[in-house]
Amino acid sequence: MFPLDSSKKLSFNRLISEGDLVITYERHDNMKAVKVCEGSTLQNRFGVFKHSDWIGKPFGTKVFSNKGGFIYLLAPTPELWTLVLSHRTQILYIADISFVIMFLELVPGCVVLESGTGSGSLSTSLARAVAPTGHVYTFDFHEQRAASAREDFEKTGLSSLVTVGVRDIQGEGFPNEFSGMADAVFLDLPQPWLAIPSVAKMLRHDGIVCSFSPCIEQVQRSCETLRSNFTDIRTFEVLLRTYEVREVKMDSYQGKEEGDDGVSVGAPPCKRRQRSNDSSNLLENQRSSIPMARPCMEAKGHTGYLTFARLRCLS
Ligand SMILES: C[S@@+](CC[C@H](N)C(=O)[O-])C[C@H]1O[C@@H](n2cnc3c(N)ncnc32)[C@H](O)[C@@H]1O
């Protein structure tokens, strides 16, 4: 997941080996994490794929099944892992994650504290942001979830960058051994305000905390608590709009257009179809393609609010 070669240098040219985790890509909404195992096969609607055909190929390779169907073998990045991991809890998705990494000002070498670990979706991106010299210490009070997250970090090759602890962070706070050591703290807890006094102890001078909460009442309570030790308190809601951009065929002068898949789609909201008396032009217009762009229907709406604050320096 974090492609380091034996000399700890970044290397993106690694070939697929026995035991590697690969993301098998059919479409952007149909991917799977698969551990490569010489004698195994992957079976899907396109046929049977032998893992032995994958070994020695570069990540990104298109491989074929016994029936001529194909998939791509992608390297397991945090972006893809977030889309294929097993959901043991609600998770953070790419729009919120990107915003968190940027606003927590994470760079290689940073020390980050996190709670709760949940399914490890955010932890995976935190780990890559601080690698190769930083570390993520993540805590969850649910033993089984912590154990599953640990297993996942082993699988994705991140275990040297992430340590998972079992602890009630709302009740006990973060362990004292991290006092003044954290560059950033991230909270995804039901009552984050209970953990904020401990966060203030853990952060280095001017370190940053981020708290993710689905409800605005949680945000209001957190902000109230943050005011005693923190400054620059800001809350964001990250809304992502995905667009579908493609060519559509006009199947009648007045009415509908036909998409690549032959399905009629609504008219685009742009300037188009000027009236003409020339009948050949009219025919041409009837079947010509026009570009269309429209927001995807299944775009995600509200996920939660992200509240950031910087520890106030005393002098
Ligand atoms: C929504 S999940 C976190 C998801 C995570 N951010 C991700 O992206 O995968 C919230 C987690 O907080 C944990 N949790 C709740 N209360 C806690 C507490 N007092 N101390 C530690 N963990 C807690 C839950 O067990 C749960 O796993």
From TrEMBL:
Source domain of life: Eukaryota
Sample GO molecular function, one term: tRNA (adenine(58)-N1)-methyltransferase activity
Cellular component annotations (GO), alphabetically ordered: nucleus; tRNA (m1A) methyltransferase complex
Chain sites annotated for binding S-adenosyl-L-methionine: S119, G120, S121, L122, D140, D168, D188
Domain tRNA (adenine(58)-N(1))-methyltransferase catalytic subunit TRM61 C-terminal: 69-310
Annotated Gene3D superfamilies: 3.10.330.20, Vaccinia Virus protein VP39
Catalytic activity reported: adenosine(58) in tRNA + S-adenosyl-L-methionine = N(1)-methyladenosine(58) in tRNA + S-adenosyl-L-homocysteine + H(+)
First-listed, main subcellular location of the protein, grouped into a coarse class: nucleus
The UniProt record lists the keyword Methyltransferase: yes
Cellular localisation: Nucleus
One example of a Gene Ontology biological process annotation: tRNA methylation
Record-linked PROSITE patterns: SAM_TRM61
Pfam families registered for this protein in UniProt: GCD14 (PF08704)
EC number in record: 2.1.1.220
UniProtKB keywords: Methyltransferase, Nucleus, S-adenosyl-L-methionine, Transferase, tRNA processing
Region described as Disordered: 254-284
Family listed: Belongs to the class I-like SAM-binding methyltransferase superfamily. TRM61 family.
UniProt-recorded name of the protein: tRNA (adenine(58)-N(1))-methyltransferase
Origin species: Cannabis sativa
